[in-house]
What we know:
The structure holds two protein chains of two kinds. By secondary structure, chain A is of the alpha/beta class. Chain A is built from eight helices and twelve strands. In chain A, helix 1 (13-28) crosses helix 2 (49-58). In chain B, strand 5 and strand 6 (143-148) form a beta hairpin.
Amino acid sequence: xxxxxxxxxxxxxxxxxxxxxxxxxxxxxxxxxxxxxxxxxxxxxxxxxxxxxxxxxxxxxxxxxxxxxxxxxxxxxxxxxxxxxxxxxxxxxxxxxxxxxxxxxxxxxxxxxxxxxxxxxxxxxxxxxxxxxxxxxxxxxxxxxxxxxxxxxxxxxxxxxxxxxxxxxxxxxxxxxxxxxxxxxxxxxxxxxxxxxxxxxxxxxxxxxxxxxxxxxxxxxxxxxxxxxxxxxxxxxxxxxxxxxxxxxxxxxxxxxxxxxxxxxxxxxxxxxxxxxxxxxxx
Amino acid sequence: xxxxxxxxxxxxxxxxxxxxxxxxxxxxxxxxxxxxxxxxxxxxxxxxxxxxxxxxxxxxxxxxxxxxxxxxxxxxxxxxxxxxxxxxxxxxxxxxxxxxxxxxxxxxxxxxxxxxxxxxxxxxxxxxxxxxxxxxxxxxxxxxxxxxxxxxxxxxxxxxxxxxxxxxxxxxxxxxxxxxxxxxxxxxxxx
Lengths: 283, 191
């Protein structure tokens, strides 16, 4: 039963049309940030207002929604967004990556490869990859227009000169279709290779910054690097303490006051699935 | 006074389903999607073109069209879109007859390429798997699409449009209840 007094999926139809037009242009210009009139949502900025508005513009009664926060289905942010859409759209939700038609995510890409009939919606805090190097929005717009990304190359080079490696473990900048520099949102650099040639459509929504951008399916996405310092996704050199995975992205847990540590899969659905299929776990 | 045919039976869910079909078409250029909503727009407007405008056009999007007074009245009533005679200022252009030159449409600017217009081009038919060879974002290897009744020299005009990238015009091809899209990012070769 959906909440009375609200339009389907919360947003009014004029807002949905505006967001839908922005999404279509975003898909036509991969990696380019499209300004949109983000609405005030019933939760604060930083809790996924951009992603929620994109999801609301997409959702239909047939959709099955999965929401993850840092890979987990059972954290406050994920649970409350799923509950929100259950209340205002009456749609089905799932924790299974394979069963979802729309997956809204905060800071992770699921371990399980996505299919063509799925859409991945990212919650984005800061859509502008150059923001920390050039805070003037008018200037970054010009740099994108000219495809002038020297600033970012210099920043990565300075890391190498000072530290010997590129010290960026998350929100690692990418080139989309060799044209636009894009922030992949604060996903770990470990997830960057999954952006490349993904079968599913990827949409990015930034509520506070009022920007929507997209990576269409099967689009080349290259993490910036140098010939002599190639991009290397970083992963903790451990196996998951629960399912034993040696390939998934791991969270580090502090287990006691004596310096005890444990590493477990960040993707809870992936970990769960491996626990339930012992054969896979044994491999 | 002429009788105005209705728009979407369910304005919320029909618009949503139509949008998802258009989004699928735009994300996978050259693949043909079906519009499920049952509408009977005035001739010569087809279901797909009618549904695209009902779900995307409104008071914020000046609309240029060549489909006659009946269609203009229908769209003005159901979408509330201002009808403009100046194609260069239109956000959406609807071509049911001879297609306007892509150059005549707004292609946006280098800083704001999203201001490039969307051309809704009504054609005689769409056939997948044969014809033009499409490559680019959204396409794994290549998609093939035959457009029956495509404007003459469209491929040359498209190459010029594509060369403007990121500026440019995006095209929705509509025939009956079928829809396919040509985002500006796509390359078309004669098949």
